[in-house]
Amino acid sequence: MQFSSYEDLRPRLLAGEVSCEEVVRVYLERIERHGDDNIYLTVFRDEAIERAAALDRKLREGGEPGRLFGLPMAIKDNISMDGAPLTCASKMLEGYRSVYDATVIRRLFDEDAIFLGKTNMDEFAMGSSNENSAFGPVQNPFDPSRVPGGSSGGSAAAVAAGLCMVALGSDTGGSVRQPAGFCDVVGLKPTYGRISRYGLVAFASSFDQIGVLSHSSMDAALVLGVMAGSDPHDATSSSHAVSDYCSEVSGVSVKGLKIGVPKEFFNEGLNPDVSRVVLARLEELRLQGAELVDITLPKSDHAIAAYYVLVTAEASSNLARYDGARYGYRSAGATDLSSMYVESRTEGFGPEVKRRIMLGTYVLSSGYYDTYYKKAQQVRRVFQDRYREALSKVDVIAGPTSPFPPFGIGAKTADPLEMYLADVFTVPASIVGMPALSVPVGYDGENLPVGMHLICNFFEEGKLLGIARHMQRPVSRLNPAL
Fold first, then answer.
1. Between 20 and 30 A from 51 (CA), which of 166, 189, 269, 372?
2. Backbone phi, psi, residue 234, to 5°
3. Which range is the signal sequence, renumbered to this chain (predicted)?
């Protein structure tokens, strides 16, 4: 049951073949058994059982089941849930509890979802391996010696290991998609503004989006349909009409589909196994009637540089609020107000967070703003124009999710630049704000997952998920090691 999709589970729940409480207990048992894997930071055991029993009672009494009736979900620990811990995997917020629900939490709850707990992550969503958590790294379900990706590594690992059916993550530069590729699940980043950010702890506000991790494209479409839509609490949320994503997924055909394949995504730095698996899957789609179109996206390597200028600048501003005065960690050794600010931030933040705050402060400083920040904004606009032009000629842009398979825990921690390059293929979609996802398409020579990265035009999430469903369907899945 733990590896099935909600698309398969829902009819069984509504027919009374299995109860919500039975489903929840299966997942809670697995979570308890895999507690050493460090995937969950908090488990809502009693609350989940109580919620499941209430939903079973509602169904027996003839109540109308919500669109997500009985769906067991996990939440990344940077999304607010009233009364629950909200740590962002940081010492800075250890012990803090949220005082309100994020908009997405309220919408999911109203449609009868069940929350099992909150998952581990890179501290304040800054990282590509889940090694930056103050509470220790998460293990990849396919090989416990390897990373699950990041920063939503706990959410991706929870879905892959059968510790929930669907999980929420957040994606700034690939933080849903890259771990999805490493953990053999579907990971969707919607169009910027498609989902309200109210209740999501800010990293880089003009990039951050809440995303979905699941076993199937249809499950992602269903959850997206519940969460999407404008929100008066978030001025950046879009009023663009919310589609019937499930119908759109079912309506996508491979025949005649134009798939843009950028040559820049298949360069010398790409792992040969990753290249082989992705190109083989594209060739299979060509044989089914799709058209592979060679496209060029010049200066793609500039995206990662512009991204790290922009997101560190925004992070330095957003994280200024954590000063030990109002909430969060407060240094015991402070002697006055000034030292309290300095010592609390020095002791409360981890090395990667401090590195990005310093970089962001530098690029925003007098004399460097025009050279770095303003130039990066110009590069961002150029990329938006180039991707719009490319997607006027093709239906989707396809390539690898990551330049390499999941790497060993500790293998890249000494070289921040090499770690940043893990997101080289996911960052462009974040810069332009278009919807993108990772879908599992095969395995390398060591049976490690390989993901394909897909980008569609603004608000074409249904089309994107429909294409992903065709990409994923024939793959013979391997059960994780955990």
1. 189
2. -130, 105
3. none
Task: Give kind and range of the element (H or E) at residue 222.
Answer: helix 217-227
Q: List strands edge to edge, sheet with 114-119.
A: 40-43, 114-119, 72-76, 166-171, 209-214, 186-189, 436-443, 449-455, 396-400, 258-262, 291-295
One-letter amino acid for residue 266 of the chain? F
Q: Which residues are annotated as catalytic? A: 76, 151, 175
pLDDT single digits (tens) 310-337: 999 999 999 999 998 887 899 998 889 9
Closest CA to 462 of 188, 182, 201, 246: 246
For the stretch 438-479, pLDDT in tens is 999 999 999 999 999 999 999 999 999 999 999 986 555 666
Q: How far apart are CA 390 and CA 393, in angstroms?
A: 6
198: tokens are 């109210």
User: In terms of residues, how long is the chain?
Assistant: 482
Domains of the chain and CATH, by start: 6-251+437-472 (3.90.1300.10)
Instruction: Judge residue 58's burial from the number of C-beta atoms within 10 Å of its C-beta, 0-12 exposed, 13-18 middle, 19 or more buried.
Output: middle
